[in-house]
Structures are given as C-alpha cells and as structure tokens.
C-alpha cells in the first residue's frame, strides 16, 4: 500500500483515450482490490496486472513503456525511479519524500503536487503529444541514472577510500 495505485486508477479513469494503457508490475495482498477498482472505474480493458517477474522481466516492461509513474505517499530515494530512468523513461511522480532529489521538474520528469489528477493527466498528454519533449526528458533521465551505475558507484567508493586513507 501507499504506492498510489488508487490515485493512478482514478486519474486514468478520467481520461477516456483507449490508447493509454497501464501495466502494473509486481504483486501483493492488495492486488485483488486494485483489480476490482480498475474494473469498477471502467479500466479493466486498459490495465494489465502483470504480477511478479524477475529483473529481466522488469527491464522488458520498462523498455516497452513510454513513461513511469509512481505516486507513493512517501518515498526515500527510489530504486524503482532510478531503474526507470536508466531505461530512458521520463518519470511522473508525487512531489513527496526523496522524489525531488531524483526528478527535476521538466528536465527528466514531472512532480505532481497533492495527488493533482488534472496536472497528472496534463503531463501525460504533453508527453504523448510532444515527441521532442519526451525524447529530451528521456535522455536527461538516462543521464541522471548513469551517475548511479555500478561503475560510477565503485569509482565514488574508491574515491572515498583514497581520501580517507590519505
């Protein structure tokens, strides 16, 4: 709970464009409740609950996506956001917790204040309508995430050790 599934389903229900699809990857005790909610708000044909998958499966779903959305009520520094950005996805997320440290508004994604469904839909429409903007956000997202690759992290740790041992 707390990842904003309800917000996302209710917001998408306000937009009737059947081309917009949502894939929810993962599983848990609330899955049946969210599946029922998707059906209740008229999204049964547009939302796919994938369930658990391995890292390769997650990577395939990210590669097949146009954007990554996460509306947690609180989040520290999100690995899921970094994985999405590493896949070149612009991120649309709640303006809470550690998300502002990862997402620069209009640079690599968008932050949505107070679960503002109208602003969320506006940002999605902007991404769909403007391939140049989506490409720029995607490139910036991948560039940001590259700072956290295994190689970059190892270099940072080596630098800290070198500094401490000097």
Q: How would you describe what is shown here?
A:
Helix 1 (5-13) packs across helix 6 and helix 4 (79-86) packs across helix 7. The longest helix is centred in the C-terminal third of the chain and has 16 residues, at 131-146. The protein starts with a helix and ends with a helix. The strands form two sheets. It has a three-stranded parallel sheet. A two-stranded parallel sheet has the order 1-2. The protein is built from eight helices and five strands, in the order αβαβαβαβαβααα. With 166 residues, the protein is of the alpha/beta class. The mean pLDDT is 92.
What characteristics describe this protein?
alpha/beta; three-stranded parallel β-sheet; two-stranded parallel ribbon; 8 helices; 5 strands
Question: What's the topology here?
Answer:
Elements lengths: L4 H9 L8 E4 L5 H10 L6 E5 L3 H9 L4 E3 L8 H8 L4 E4 L4 H4 L6 E4 L4 H13 L1 H16 L3 H16 L1
Parallel strand pairs: 1-2, 3-4, 4-5
């Amino acid at each position: 709970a707390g990842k904003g599934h309800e917000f996302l389903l209710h917001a998408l229900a306000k937009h009737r464009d059947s081309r917009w699809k949502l894939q929810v990857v993962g599983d848990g005790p609330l899955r049946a409740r969210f599946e029922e909610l998707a059906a209740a708000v008229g999204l049964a044909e547009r939302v796919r609950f994938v369930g658990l998958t391995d890292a390769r499966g997650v990577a395939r779903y990210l590669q097949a996506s146009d954007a990554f959305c996460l509306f947690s009520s609180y989040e520290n520094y999100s690995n899921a956001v970094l994985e999405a950005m590493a896949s070149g996805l612009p991120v649309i997320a709640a303006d809470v917790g550690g998300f502002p440290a990862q997402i620069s508004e209009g640079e690599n994604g968008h932050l949505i204040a107070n679960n503002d469904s109208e602003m969320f839909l506006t940002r999605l429409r902007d991404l769909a309508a403007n391939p140049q903007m989506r490409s720029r956000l995607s490139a910036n997202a991948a560039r940001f995430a590259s700072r956290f690759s295994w190689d970059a992290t190892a270099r940072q740790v080596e630098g800290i050790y070198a500094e401490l041992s000097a």
